[in-house]
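This part of the workshop introduces the protein records we will be handling. Getting from the letters to the tokens is the skill we practise here. An example says more than a description, so a record of this kind follows:
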Amino acid sequence: MKSKCYVMVLALLVITSGLVSAGNVIGVNFCDAWDKPHMEGKTADGFDNWTDSWPLWNWDSASNGSVVVRGSNDLVTCTWSSPNTWAGGYEDTSEQQLYRVYLDDGGNGALITVSGLGEWLTSIGATSYSVRIYHSTDNGSGFMGVDLTDGTSILETVQETNHWTTDGGLRAFVDSGALSASTLVIDPLARDSANRATIAAFKITAIPEPATMVLLALGGLVLRRKHS
């Protein structure tokens, strides 16, 4: 009887671990025609399946575009508008390249809309997600907050608190809490005299359902007991 229970738990473990590990992180890197800032195929911040925005705009010109996000089963689309792109700071590693080119904050600033998140969550057996926003600038002392909305109502306003400097640039990232809106709008607050409202990239990580987490924990306990 015990062996049958082990088999059932292990089968559930395999199924649920596949749901929460395959395609449970997606991310978009804003870049341009320069070679180094392209992130597809590179690893930065623990993620290696970035979607590059280039070649959907030209360097230092008005930036509007749309991409289907890699790793989302073709369910998630990112669209954006920005007065231009710019590059801040030096880079010679993928961690630095992720921040190199960013959506600028002149004019009306940048606006990013991510659609299809509800369908993506359903496809991987999750119900919510968190978003990490990456800031970059070559001319500023900090970064403005960012409103995260569903297109109508503000879900959360995130504000970075730990930025750092590199050669010629300022960097930061900030994480949201758990969100579940199918459409996510990333809307930086308007810049002030010192703080920038630029965005270099974003990453969205699915949060597994509590029941899935329990099954994963139970499966791990069974495996430990079986091997002890």
User: Anything to note?
Assistant: The chain has one domain: 26-211.
